[in-house]
Amino acid sequence: EYDGDRNAEGERHGFGKARLPNGDTYEGEYEHGLRSGRGTYRFKSGALYTGSYLQNRKHGKGIFFYPDGSKYAGDWVNDQRQGQGEYTYANGDTYTGEWFNHMRHGQGTYIYKDTGSKYIGRWVNGIQEGPGEFIHLNHRFQGRFFNGKPLGRGKYVFDFGCEQHGEYVQLEQEKKEEEEEGEEVPLPVESKWKASEITTLTPWIPEDEKPPSP
How does DSSP classify residue 186? Predict the structure, then answer.
């Protein structure tokens, strides 16, 4: 069903309200028969999107309310979360930063509601990877992350005024027997912190960032 403006060709054009065959509804702007401009789309599932459209796809600034209570507010490109945006998860955690192809990708900050801990750093395809900082109640870790876990050289900075330098090294794990089909069972990679020295506080510059010019 459609109730709204049409152009000379009879296409939906201008402002209108529509009820789709699956029970979803849309109220907003149309161009040549397609959702384009500002609008609000209500899903039968309880989800809701309000924001910009381009040729029936979410594109531009918009807010999506998901059925589980989570919410994304930010940039959209071709129906995907892409650009800058903030996601509030159902458990109260939040991520604010860059998105690409629907995933956390680029620079961003993730705050864990239960503990108050915070990760500030790089993300690749939804996983912490690259230089980053994990901030806890009275200390923080600064270093590099790989596949969501710290790996390589880094340091723990304590609020009482000292640092512990060291590195996370991967533990060698005993290889499992191969399955009868001949496929190996992938083992989770664990890393262990090896401390090397304790110093006073020193500046930290992430490895792939150049220090400021003198």
Answer: P
Q: Rounded to an integer, what distance in angstroms lies between the CA atom of residue 50 and that of residue 53?
A: 9
Please give the single-letter amino acid code of residue 190.
Answer: E
- pTM of the predicted model as reported, rounded to 2 decimal places: 0.85
CATH no. for 1-78: 2.20.110.10
Strand partners, 145: 130, 150
Give me 167's structure tokens. 């590195």
Cα-to-chain-centroid distance, residue 45: 23
Structure tokens at 19: 């009820």
Cα separation of 46 and 22, whole Å? 13
CATH level 2 (architecture), domain 91-171+191-199 = Single Sheet (2.20)
Write the pLDDT tens digit of every residue in 33-51: 999 999 999 999 999 999 9
Q: Tell me the pLDDT tens digit for each residue of 147-198.
A: 999 999 999 999 989 999 999 998 766 555 454 444 555 555 678 999 999 9
- Which of 90, 85, 91, 88 lies closest to 105, judged by CA? 85
In the chain the beta strands, taken as DSSP E runs, fall at 2-6, 12-19, 25-31, 34-42, 48-54, 57-65, 71-77, 80-88, 94-100, 103-111, 118-124, 127-135, 139-146, 149-158, 162-170, 191-199
- Name the segment(s) of the chain with CATH classification 2.20.110.10: 1-78, 91-171+191-199
